[in-house]
Amino acid sequence: MTERTLKELHSLILRGLDDETAGRYRRRNVIISGADFRPPEFLQVQAHIDAFFQWYAHSAPELHPVERAARIQADLVSIHPFADGNGRTARLVLNLELLRAGFPVIIIPVEERGTYYIRTWIVPPPRATIYPLWSK
User: Fold this and answer.
1) What Å distances lie between residue 11 and 50, 89, 118, 120, 122, CA to CA?
2) What is the DSSP letter of 105?
3) In degrees rounded to 5, what are phi and psi of residue 69?
4) Catalytic positions
5) Which of 69, 85, 98, 101 is the most exposed, having the fewest neighbouring CB atoms within 10 Å of its CB?
């Protein structure tokens, strides 16, 4: 996966819904309703994405494919690079990683979304170990 792939996937997800921001990193700060977590400021998104892809290229291959897919999903949601569609994009990337490794996709039923959101934001990923930028 590359940064271009990430943007293209996001663009596909938002096609027809928000063509103006589809495939583009956000240009404003956002707040995630219902979460205490605050994503990085929009001016820091590119640096976080660069660090993410550096990790993806060098450290991610050492992880078990399921752990790698989960980390990728959690990290992309935490960086929150887009104005909308971050969760959908991150879940799609998670499933692409699983499929590439020969695993089945993960489907989160609508009735379970509340639990998924709670678990995603109550137990955030260990960002400082992946991205030194998070601690700045």
Assistant:
1) 19, 9, 26, 23, 28
2) P
3) -60, -45
4) 80
5) 101
